[in-house]
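Subject: Sanity check before I submit

Could someone independently write out the structure tokens for this chain? I want to compare against mine line by line before I put it in a report. The sequence has 150 residues.
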Amino acid sequence: MKRHTLCTLAAMAVGGAAALSGCTPTSGAAPKAPLATIPLDTHWRLMELQGQAPIAGHQPTLSWEADGRIHGHASCNRYFGEWSGTPQELQVKPLGMTKMACFPDTINQQETAFAQALQQARRLRMDGAQLVLEDGTGRTLLRFEPTQAE
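---
Independent answer below. Compare away.
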């Protein structure tokens, strides 16, 4: 991960621009101001998937790690992957996932929709205590609430 990205993430984690004072981007461009302070190394439970509540008892989770990893439950299977960028220019790389059979089929459908939405996310922001992931146009894809580690 590039030095300016790590510095931006460090500033977001401590919630202040003062942490950027020792960080200079390697590209010579000024770092972009974050949309919000994003708490990293935290755990989230899905509240909304493209405007719909998740299936009760099968709520996907997300652990967002400062080292560039993500992981959690997609509904039935566990997933893992990597992310990079900033809150305004997010990229989630292709996800790996376990291959358990999940019944009924609505759980499989939710799991597929969740994984696709996660990989389509291009922005993230905080809305109160909720984490919101949006596509490049600002449309809400996923909304999470904080939860305990899995």
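---
OP: Matches mine. For the report I'm noting this point. Residues 5 and 72 are 23 Å apart (CA to CA).
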